[in-house]
Backbone:
């Protein structure tokens, strides 16, 4: 896994910490990884064919995404 540095506003960090504090996630990194996966999967909606075992497809996509590099410019556009 690669490591990246991301600058986030205090308000977003506070929300991330709240998710960790409630036990929904074990760390800030887990929150961000899940958020990026959801963003990428959301962009794929309508691209995936709805055939066969969709849960298996999603798990396979998550596995692949966890190994791919992420376009931070695309993520930063969400904060604008």
Residues:
């Amino acid at each position: 896994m690669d490591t990246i540095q991301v600058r986030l506003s205090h308000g977003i960090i506070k929300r991330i910490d709240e998710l960790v504090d409630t036990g929904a996630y074990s760390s800030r990194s887990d929150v961000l990884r899940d958020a990026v996966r959801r963003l990428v999967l959301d962009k794929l909606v309508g691209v995936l064919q709805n055939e066969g075992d969709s849960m298996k497809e999603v798990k396979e996509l998550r596995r692949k995404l966890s190994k791919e590099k992420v376009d931070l410019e695309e993520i930063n556009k969400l904060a604008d």
